[in-house]
């Protein structure tokens, strides 16, 4: 049998962003299988990504490798030019390896199982994988790497970066992606002169052009820029630690104590990482805090930074938070409480997607975007977070807009308001929590204010109106409880107040709920009050609705209310009145009026005749008891109270008289 982790979603195009690749890998790791050769061919032909090995703890670390029966060589027919840019090889180039040429190679023709065309395969540029099935499974990571090195040496033209089966391979070209060379072909590694005495760390000459135990400063910079997790974890293996029970601040402090001399495997004199340094001018020393400091003595440079600062400068990140999160992801340093929260969030959003037809329309319409925002917050944790149960994240609409451009294109960058609003909506329905200054740890608040000041000086010449990023907390939760809260409390409230996402604002939440609730939801720079004109319109409409009872009328359509207010406020434009009343329907519900859509059942309940369905307001107290309403709708012959009126007969006696139905055109 073949051990394999398989994605459950077909790949339509090769993923570009790290987030897309991570999502695919996580889906693969959630679906472990043991398959036959025929089933393996089906996977190769299905455009599904896969990891052809078995590992412990869903990890790609060397020490977590368990076994594999598959070796896959990758051929992409590209090289790097003198400017380090990737360029395609011409078919006339002697280095170009076509499928036809590959099949003529002895090892491939006689021992390879199949060839799979890659997702970016074309007749003009052949990109493909050569698949070997081993006679016996390999259970040692270094042996597996040695087999890869032997095969690549004897099959020129294969990608040197592909050197292990515990990595992910993206789905193939399309349904006819696979060429079976020979169903019976098997590779018996015992028959070949493979040197298994050389460990992977010394045997693998990687694309940085060095052995792991022979390093220099340039190699380290290339390592960081290449963002290869396997390479990173191998280089850092002597510096890594178990983060399971640590807070993010503890992980951060531990990273700062990494001995950069040991990490760079260097002598006392170093070439600076940040400028052309022909004469070594840098050194590493331990500061008073116990942190390892990289310092350049050149007067033209003068860089003096700790380990996080080094990574930040190499990657040109905007903040230490970004550099910290980059290290968490690439070195797999997430604590247990993070992993649990991530798993529970997946359960939550998967469950919400499965009950799509039952969701309130706004939640349904924005579910995909909310999921991506939540995942983005997970990857932006603050290093001054001391909690071991929740996560604290820093995010502004501007930052989020840039991150969302990976999914929604460059137009997202200019949609700052859109993403600020979605963050507030997610806060409103309880998915995340916005922290006010009083809730933020003092050192984190100082960090944010300094960041705000630095950016203001850099971008606006010291403009004090520059706003700092917001702070959000992702609390540990149970998906079932969150869904119950949404369905039993939040969605009924949204329906009650006739919520429309377009009109979601600080003013709306303040009117329908409270000022305190609105402040919890919206950051300070998004708290806009109602204009004087809108307040005037609402006051006038409220007075009109108040008059329904003493006029003996209990019902009024929204259109009629709009026309009445327009007649009373002749200096205000009709569109302004109409928009103000639509945007703030919840205000009148909050004031005690009933707002219903005049459906067939509602018309029956309230003794109304109308040719179409539209919104109607009922006077305060004119609602029908829920028990009575259920009886009427179930067919019991009850007559609504408001079908009757009291009249005085000639003899002075008051009697009840049936009212004619209210006719609404």
UniProtKB/TrEMBL annotation:
InterPro entries in alphabetical order: DNA_primase_Znf_CHC2 (IPR036977)
GO molecular function: DNA binding; zinc ion binding
BP GO terms, sorted: DNA replication
Official protein name in the record: Uncharacterized protein
Organism of derivation: Enterococcus hirae
């Amino acid at each position: 049998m073949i051990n394999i982790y398989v994605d459950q979603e077909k790949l339509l195009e090769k993923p570009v962003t790290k987030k897309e690749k991570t999502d695919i890998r996580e889906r693969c790791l959630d679906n472990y299988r043991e398959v036959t050769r025929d089933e393996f061919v089906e996977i190769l032909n299905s455009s599904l990504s896969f990891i052809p090995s078995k590992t412990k703890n869903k990890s790609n670390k060397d020490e977590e490798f368990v076994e594999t029966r598959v070796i896959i060589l990758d051929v992409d027919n590209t090289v790097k030019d003198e400017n380090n840019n990737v360029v395609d090889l011409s078919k006339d180039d002697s280095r170009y390896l076509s499928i036809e040429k590959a099949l003529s190679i002895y090892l491939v023709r006689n021992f390879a199982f199949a060839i799979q065309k890659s997702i970016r395969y074309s007749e003009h540029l052949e990109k493909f994988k050569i698949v070997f099935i081993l006679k016996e499974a390999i259970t040692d990571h270094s042996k597996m790497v040695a087999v890869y090195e032997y095969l690549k040496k004897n099959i020129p033209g294969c990608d040197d970066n592909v050197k292990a089966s515990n990595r992910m391979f993206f789905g193939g070209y399309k349904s006819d992606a696979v060429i079976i060379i020979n169903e019976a072909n098997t590779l018996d590694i015992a028959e070949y002169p493979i040197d298994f005495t050389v460990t992977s760390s010394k045997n693998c000459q990687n694309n940085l052009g060095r052995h792991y135990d022979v390093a220099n400063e340039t190699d380290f910079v290339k390592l960081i820029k290449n963002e290869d997790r396997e390479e990173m974890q191998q280089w850092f293996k002597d510096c890594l630690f178990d983060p399971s029970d640590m807070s993010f601040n503890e992980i951060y402090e531990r990273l700062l104590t990494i001995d950069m001399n040991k990490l760079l495997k260097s002598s006392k004199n170093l070439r600076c990482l940040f400028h052309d340094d022909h004469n070594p001018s840098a050194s590493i020393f331990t500061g008073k805090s116990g942190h390892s400091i990289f310092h350049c003595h050149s007067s033209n440079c003068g860089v003096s930074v700790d380990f996080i600062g080094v990574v930040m400068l190499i990657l040109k990140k905007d903040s230490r938070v970004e550099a910290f999160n980059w290290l968490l992801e690439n070195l797999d340093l997430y604590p247990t409480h993070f992993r649990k929260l991530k798993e529970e969030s997946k359960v939550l959003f998967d469950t919400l997607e499965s009950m799509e037809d039952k969701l309130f329309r706004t939640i349904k319409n924005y579910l995909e975007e909310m999921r991506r925002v939540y995942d983005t917050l997970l990857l932006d944790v603050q290093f001054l977070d001391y909690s071991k149960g929740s996560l604290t994240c820093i995010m502004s609409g501007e930052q989020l807009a840039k991150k969302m451009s990976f999914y929604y294109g460059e137009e997202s960058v200019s949609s700052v308001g859109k993403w600020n609003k979605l963050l507030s909506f997610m806060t409103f329905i309880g998915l995340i929590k916005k922290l006010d200054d009083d809730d933020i740890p003092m050192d984190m608040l100082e960090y944010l204010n300094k960041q705000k000041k630095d950016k203001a000086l850099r971008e606006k010449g010291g403009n004090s109106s520059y706003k700092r990023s917001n702070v959000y907390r992702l609390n540990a939760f149970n998906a079932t409880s969150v869904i119950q809260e949404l369905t039993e409390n939040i969605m009924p409230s949204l329906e009650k107040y006739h919520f429309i996402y377009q009109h979601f604002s600080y003013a709306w939440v303040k009117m329908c709920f409270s000022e305190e609730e609105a402040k919890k939801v919206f950051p300070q720079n998004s708290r806009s009050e109602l204009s004087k004109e809108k307040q005037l319109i609402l006051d006038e409409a409220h007075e009109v609705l108040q008059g329904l009872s003493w006029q003996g009328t209990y019902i009024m359509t929204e259109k009629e209310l709009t026309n009445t207010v327009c007649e009373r406020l002749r200096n205000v434009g009709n569109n302004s009145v109409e928009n103000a009343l639509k945007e703030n329907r919840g205000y009148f519900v909050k004031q005690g009026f009933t707002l219903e859509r005049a459906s067939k059942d509602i018309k029956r309940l309230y003794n109304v005749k109308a040719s179409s369905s539209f919104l109607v307001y009922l006077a305060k107290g004119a609602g029908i008891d829920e028990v009575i309403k259920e009886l009427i709708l179930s067919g019991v012959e009850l007559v609504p109270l408001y079908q009757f009126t009291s009249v005085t007969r000639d003899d002075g006696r008051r009697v009840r008289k049936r009212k004619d139905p209210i006719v609404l055109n």
